[in-house]
Predict the structure.
Amino acid sequence: MKKYLIPHEGNFYKANLHCHSTISDGKMTVEELKEAYMKEGYSIIAYTDHSKYVPHNDLSDEKFLAINSYEEDISDWAVKDSRIRRCYHFNCYDKDPSGTKDVVLPLPEYNDIDGINEYIDRMNKAGFLVCYNHPNWSLQTLDDYGKLKGLFATEVFNFSAYIDGIDGNQEVPYDSLLRAGNRLFCVATDDNHDNYELGHPLNDSFGGFIWVKAESLDYRTVIEALEKGNFYASMGPEIKELYIEDGKVHLECSPARRITLTNVGRRSEICRARKGETISSADFTVDPDDKFIRIQIEDEHGLRANTNAYFVEDIL
Ligand SMILES: [Zn+2]
Ligand SMILES: [Zn+2]
C-alpha cells in the first residue's frame, strides 16, 4: 500500500517564509510585496521583519495568506566587529491567526545555550513555530547550533545569503542537526530585502520557497500542513509525487539531472541522467538502518529541491 510522504490530495501553495518589508530593513512595503509575489505565483508570505511582531491579517484574502511572524536576533554582542559577529536568527511563526499575542520575551545571551533553548521552548509554548535561519550567513558551526532544541525547521537554502556571495545552500547544517538526533523540517526562503529593484540580477526575491500541500489557504489549515511537514523546499524543481511502497520510496518531479537519497550515514542512492538528457522519477530502497531519509533533486541549471527528512521508524 502506498504511504504518501507528501499528501496526494490537496493543493500546492507557493510560499516565502522569510521576508523583510519597510517595517524593518526591507525596501518594499508589505502591500508591494504581496502584489509582486502573487504575480510570481506565490500564495503565502510570512512577513518576518526584524524583532518586531506586526500581524498582517488585513492582507489575507481568498487568494493570499499572510502568516504573522517576525525574526528574532540573539547576537554575540561581545564581538564589536559586526562583520565577524556570530548570531542566532530565529523566524517565529504564530500558529494562531488572531495576531494578538504579546511576544516580547527577554532574550538570553549568545553563549547561554540553555537560555536559548528556554527561549525557543517559551516561544513554542506561546504558540509559535520556530525556524533556525541561515547558519552559514550567521558564521555558525555545529558548536553553535548542534545543541538547539525545539525547532520546527531550519533553512536548507537562503537566497539572500546566496545573493550576498555567501553559500546559500545549507544542507550540511541540516544533515548535521539530523545526524545529531534532532527531528526538524527544512525550508528554502528568500530572506529578501530588495535592495536592488525586482528583476535586477542582485535582487533577492523569488529564489527560495516552499510548496505547501494543503486543502485550502485557510490560516490554521496551512499552519497544520507546516506542522505535519506537508511541504518541500525548492529553488525551482517541482515534486509531483512522493510516496513509499513495499520499502521503496518513489518520487516524480520536473526534469532533473540528478536525484539523490541521503540518510544518517554514508550509504546513499542516486539516479543521474546521461549527458544532455533529464530524468523525472526515481525509486530508492529504504534500509531500516537509514534512520532518516531525505531526497534532493538538482535540475540542469543546478537549482535544487529538498524534501524534508522522514524518519524510518515512521515510514517503514
Ligand atoms: Zn536573519
Ligand atoms: Zn531575515
In short: The longest helix spans residues 113-125. The two ends are 11 Å apart (CA to CA). The chain has a mean pLDDT of 96.
